[in-house]
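Protocol step 4 of 6: structure prediction from sequence.
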Amino acid sequence: MIGEMITVTVDRPMGSYHPEHKDMYYPINYGYIKGIMAADGEEQDVYILGVDEALDEFTGRVIAIVHRHDDIEEKWVVAPTDSSFTKEEIREQIHFQEQYFDSEIVM
């Protein structure tokens, strides 16, 4: 999937809070890919990096996969085609949620 272009439906825009865990703030846009099912039985979740405004939808390039060793699902990381991020930059931006998991970033 890395390098593929995908369209993400944003259900947790930048600046919002998790619908169930009210103390989890989303500093980046977060969403899912319609029609692509993940191991947890839900549509594939995606972190969106490199965009500084709240979105409803975003088309970009998959730049990394976040593999969780202690969870059934993986998260994809998407960014604009003209941007690049190091593993450390990705880790910093997704820390708000990944801090609760033993995860690694695959690029």
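Step 5 (inspection) to follow. The CA atoms of residues 41 and 86 lie 30 Å apart.
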